[in-house]
Amino acid sequence: MKFWNQYKNSYKYMLCCIILAVMMTASSCGDQGKAQKPDAQQGSGAETTDMVQQFGTVQQSGTAQMESYGAALASNGVTLPVSRPSIYVDVAGYVTGREKKVIFAGERHGQTFDVVRSQDGEVVYTGMIPHGEVDQLGGQMLSVGDFTGLDEPGTYYIHTDIVGQSYPFVIAEDTYENLFLSMLRNISNVDLQESPEGVCDVSFGMHVIMYALQCNGSLFEAAYQHLDQSEQDQQLVTQLLYMGKWLSSRQGSDGSLYGNYEATAAFCGIMAMSRDMFGRYEASVGREYQNAANAAWEWLERQPCETDCEKSARFYAAAQLFHADRGEKYKNIAEEFLRAKEADYSSERFVFFGVLAYISAEEGTDRDLGTYIMRDMVDRVEAICEEVKQDSVLGTGTRTAEENMSNMLHLSFVNYLTPSKEYTVIIENTIQYMGGLNEDGICYMGADGAQVQSLEWKGILLLSMSDMISNINELEK
Question: What's the CA dihedral at 369, 371, 375, 376 to 10 degrees?
């Protein structure tokens, strides 16, 4: 039985800022995942065990070998042609009872397509390929076929006599459930970069994962029931503690990370958030995070803060510190930045995540300012919806993975506060886009949940999947 049927949503329609304040301070979280241990993960077993008890890349199969062949040929002056698929399917899988699309690129693909069962090669469905249209966003000639009528679980591929066949895909009732569980099992399978960019990715990844836990903690807890005993160290709380250790081990004696302003600000902010979330359950962890955040902030104060990037980064750190301890100094810095900005509070990740920290503080915030910011962020989501209405092909409104991930983050944030069928459909379309239903036929996520290497992207996918599953379940009642 699907675990989201065990999950009972309790959405409360209040003022957005009040909902956020309650939500972000709630501590009923789930837990999860470890696959690769950075060196800083050693020696934290007792703390991790106690706290877990408290809390209750593109698909690469065969790619490395092909690249080695290509390198050998290139060294001898032979260049391989670039190949791209002509049939795009959601390699991550389709769900029974929901819409199923296939996209054909170009103009020569025939008039019909077959859905073939992989097990025995039997054609189980034949659909029409409509006349194509030029995708105004991507510039390609694309035709969208539909096989929603096929609901029998199994593994299939699309075939046409002219183009050939697609990658295989699965149809199942629990496709989203399995994908969600795979993401949980592989959350730590990331490329931890020893660089300022790597620090920012891990910091913001931790932020959005903690946000996902706070939004949909009951759903995560239900999912963990499907992990066996050997996977108990693959819980999100465990992994967040490991990532915090990894980050702390990169802090220099001067308090900075790599002497970089943005990386140090990101680290300062996530240490403050982690202390607020975990410190109440383990005092030694709380002190460690507090000391790390204080040292990072002191380093930031000694540096000039002149560029827009530096000001946004300092705002994020100040907003997180204000959320954690309500310090008047941090509040003044955060509010001065927000008032000076006046608009566009969601286009930069330092600003967006800093805003989440500020408006979700329990007390001490300027409520009028918070309401003004929320209106601006809702306007951003409405603009995304308007772009999607012009996109009759993929239903995402954009054609880059980066923009899709950004849009999905903002949609999920607003969709949690005010659940909407429109928002949920766009999130689902975007997840299908990331699963291979895009104009390049690239699968950014798959059955093993390990393709995406950015922790921030993994966090966004976890938030969006949990939000989508909850709302699909709620909207279908």
Answer: 20
What burial letters (b/e) apply to 43-58, b meaning 16+ CB within 10 Å?
ebeebbeebbeebebe
Task: Give SS3 for 112.
Answer: strand
Q: In the chain, what's the furthest Cα-to-Cα distance?
A: 70
Q: In terms of Cα–Cα distance, which of 213, 92, 112, 218 is closest to 155?
A: 92
Note the pTM of the prediction, 2 decimals: 0.82
pLDDT of residue 79: 42
Distance from C-alpha of 177 to C-alpha of 174, rounded to nearest angstrom: 5
Please choose, from the candidates 362, 360, 384, the residue with its C-alpha nearest in 3D space to the C-alpha of residue 373: 360
Tokens of 287: 């002190």
pLDDT band at 229 (very low <50, low <70, confident <90, very high): confident
Same domain, 160 and 267: no
Mean pLDDT of 88-112: 93
Is residue 51 assigned to a domain?
yes
Asked whether residue 249 falls in the same domain as residue 142, the answer is no
Burial-class residue 32 by CB neighbours within 10 Å (0-12, 13-18, 19+). Answer: buried
Is residue 72 in a domain?
no
Judge whether 280 lies within some domain.
yes
Alpha helices in 235-327 (DSSP H): 236-248, 261-278, 283-301, 308-325
Report the alpha-carbon angle 39-255-352, nearest 5.
Answer: 85
DSSP assignment of 313-352: HHHHHHHHHHHHH--HHHHHHHHHHHHHH-S--SSSHHHH
Render the burial of 336-361: b for 16+ CB within 10 Å, e for the rest: ebbeebeeebbebbbbbbbbbbbbbb
